[in-house]
Recover the amino acids of this structure.
């Protein structure tokens, strides 16, 4: 039996080739075509989710994007998030915490960005920074960041119980591809603003980050908040894969447009009664 899209990507990061195409389109032309078809489906599903909330529904979707620098978090937001009505999106970017944020629990700033009912939330980085960067750079003691795995799974279970469906995507990129993308930023004056010298510092810790990602995914992959490892060396495949995972998740939720609380035929009659006759030509 063929795997579903989500089954194909729900694997340990060590088992996924960053250039792999385990399911779906196998070339860029097909990927572009299939992404367009997914866009129509996502747009309809997102509108139904939004309409359901207007009718009192409490469900939302949270897409968490994590990955090394240049893995394509911004590209996914633009190419996948751009497929749906922006009114139904809530996008949050988590950079280095401010002094105010550091004075609170690490989940404080994250809770404030959880999407409201009817919306698709997208996190560009997330609470996982606190078991990735915090671990690799030694920002907190080991017993602190290790304790956060349990706090994260409890937090995500709480969200799921509230009706927030969580989709976590690790954008898996190879060090070779990252080097090419960083060089491309340096070579293009219009892209140099995206380059940060600190990216090279993080790159020097590649092995430590891979170890941190592997453990974070292993410790926090649950049925309530599953991790999907997305091959991201090929941008077109990465975009298709995230869109396909999101579409499959929304289809399973099967949001419905609410039934009207008024008599449709009566409203047709009222509308006809107050519509001016067409002027003679």
């Amino acid at each position: 039996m063929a795997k579903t899209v989500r089954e194909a990507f729900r694997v340990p990061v060590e088992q996924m080739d960053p250039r792999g195409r385990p399911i779906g389109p196998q070339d860029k032309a097909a990927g572009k075509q299939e992404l367009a078809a997914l866009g129509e489906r996502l747009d309809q599903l997102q509108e139904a989710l939004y309409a359901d909330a207007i009718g009192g529904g409490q469900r939302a979707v949270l897409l968490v994007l994590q990955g090394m620098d240049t893995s394509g978090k911004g590209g996914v937001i633009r190419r996948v998030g751009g497929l749906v009505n922006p009114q139904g999106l809530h996008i949050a970017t988590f950079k280095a915490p401010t002094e105010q944020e550091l004075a609170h629990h690490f989940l404080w700033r994250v809770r404030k960005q959880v999407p409201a009912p009817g919306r698709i939330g997208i996190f560009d980085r997330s609470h996982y920074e606190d078991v990735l960067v915090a671990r690799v750079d030694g920002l907190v003691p080991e017993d602190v960041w290790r304790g956060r795995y349990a706090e994260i799974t409890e937090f995500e279970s709480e969200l799921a119980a509230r009706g927030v469906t969580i989709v976590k995507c690790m954008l898996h990129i190879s060090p070779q591809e990252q080097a090419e993308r960083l060089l491309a930023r340096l070579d293009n004056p219009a892209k140099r603003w995206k380059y940060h010298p600190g990216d090279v510092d993080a790159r020097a810790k590649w092995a430590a980050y891979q170890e941190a990602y592997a453990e974070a995914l292993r410790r926090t992959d649950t049925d309530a908040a599953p991790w999907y490892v997305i091959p991201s060396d090929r941008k077109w495949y990465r975009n298709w894969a995230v869109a396909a995972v999101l579409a499959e998740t929304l289809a399973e939720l099967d949001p419905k447009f609410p039934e009207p609380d008024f008599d449709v035929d009566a409203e047709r009659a009222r509308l006809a009664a107050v519509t001016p006759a067409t002027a003679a030509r």
In short: The beta strands are 60-67, 89-93, 120-124, 164-172, 227-231.
